[in-house]
Design a protein that fits this description.
By secondary structure, the protein is mainly beta. The chain has a single domain, classed as Metal Binding Protein, Guanine Nucleotide Exchange Factor, Chain A (Beta Complex), CATH 2.170.150. Helices cover 7% and strands 29% of the residues. The chain is built from two helices and ten strands, in the order βββαβββββββα. The chain has a seven-stranded mixed beta sheet. The longest helix is centred in the N-terminal third of the chain and has 7 residues. It is globular, with a radius of gyration of 17 Å. The relative contact order is 0.22.
Length: 160
């Protein structure tokens, strides 16, 4: 897939997006609004202001989190999708089908950074099935999550 074409969407697949053009700056925001909007320690975002963004499936719901910013999300499953400010839109990096290629280069909102975030990489790590107490249900777990790709053929053959 070309570097100037990306797809993604929410966990349930009700909302899908396409980005045609170069992605902008990728960042991690620790501000309290981003923490609340993502339900997480921070929110990784990538700017798409120089690219064409389309929404081929579903309509994102939006919440105005401040006088200048709207947050887009899936109204069915709640997946955070957008940060929409006067200077453009940023998309949640983890909502992309291939997030591993989008690397943040700066952290913002560090005044609200949770004190233990920098220590998370030093915590012991285990694979999912190593959780013996959960293994009995994990072994039979069936994911209802939308796959990390569009179900229709995209991009068209001439764009591959």
């Amino acid at each position: 897939m070309a570097d100037d074409f990306h797809t993604g969407g929410c966990q349930c697949g009700a909302v899908r997006f396409r980005v045609e053009g170069k992605l902008g700056d990728a960042s991690v925001c620790h501000c309290r609004m981003c923490q609340k909007a993502s339900g997480n320690f921070y929110l990784p975002l990538v700017s798409v202001r120089g690219a064409k963004v389309s929404w081929p499936r579903g309509e994102r719901k939006r919440f105005q989190s401040s006088n200048a910013v709207w947050r887009g999300f899936c109204g069915d499953c709640g997946t955070p999708l957008t940060f929409e400010a006067p200077d453009g839109i940023a998309l949640a990096i983890a909502a992309f089908d291939r997030p591993e290629g989008i690397t943040p280069t700066i952290q913002w909102g560090t005044e609200a950074k949770l004190p233990y975030v920098d220590h998370v990489p030093s915590l012991p790590g285990e694979e999912t099935m190593a959780d013996v107490d959960a293994a009995s249900y994990l072994a039979h777990l069936e994911s209802y999550q939308h796959p990390d790709h569009d179900t229709e053929t995209w991009p068209p053959e001439e764009k591959r």
